[in-house]
Design a protein that fits this description.
Elements lengths: L7 H32 L9 E5 L3 E6 L5 E7 L2 E6 L3 H35 L29 H32 L1
Antiparallel strand pairs: 1-2, 2-3, 3-4
Length: 182
């Protein structure tokens, strides 16, 4: 080896030194990026999403819209599925009920004003002790109940007497049966 020619050993050291320097610089850049990512919010919009761990992955809440997503890790990477939002259905029902309430309030106000107009008018003057004259159609609705005659009353009395005698006879037989056995 001549002193003027570079040795294979020094060339190898030169390549190792350059490679180490490049890797060190790259590592510093990558570590800075990783540190920024670890300290910053999960997105670039200053904490828009709040993450909570669950058994299968992560639950993501969008703090601006209120949407909730379930994020799970699969073979291809992370996939987030938006969970069904019951709030939209509740908001729709609330809106419908508020509209119904306003409509019913307007209808009630209209009825109350119509009733107030009727109350303001004085009632017609009439004698409260006299009966109103019968209308011509009142005779058609009248029901006549015939009064029973003497013959009908005698028949009813004989039926009641027979029922009373049978009841007394039955009571006497029961009394004899109980007194004879004791």
């Amino acid at each position: 080896m001549s002193p003027d020619s570079p040795s294979k050993f020094s060339t190898a050291w030169l390549v190792v030194a350059l490679t180490s320097g490049l890797l060190a610089g790259l590592c510093v850049d990558l570590c800075a990026i990783h540190a920024d990512a670890a300290t910053s919010a999960p997105d670039t919009e200053n904490g828009r999403y709040a993450l909570s761990p669950i058994t299968d992955g992560v639950l993501r809440l969008d703090t601006r819209t209120g949407a909730v997503s379930s994020c799970t890790r699969s073979g291809d990477g992370w996939a987030c599925t938006v969970m069904p939002d019951e709030r939209a259905a509740l908001d729709e029902a609330i809106g419908r009920l508020q509209a119904d309430n306003e409509r019913l309030k307007a209808e009630l106000a209209a009825r109350q004003s119509a009733a107030a107009e009727k109350i303001d008018e004085p009632p017609p003057k009439a004698d409260s002790l006299t009966k109103p004259a019968p209308k011509p159609n009142d005779g058609a609705r009248r029901i006549d109940i015939p009064v029973p005659g003497d013959r009908d009353i005698d028949r009813a009395m004989s039926v009641l007497e027979q029922a009373w005698r049978r009841l007394v006879e039955m009571a006497n037989r029961m009394e004899r049966d109980f007194t004879g056995r004791i």
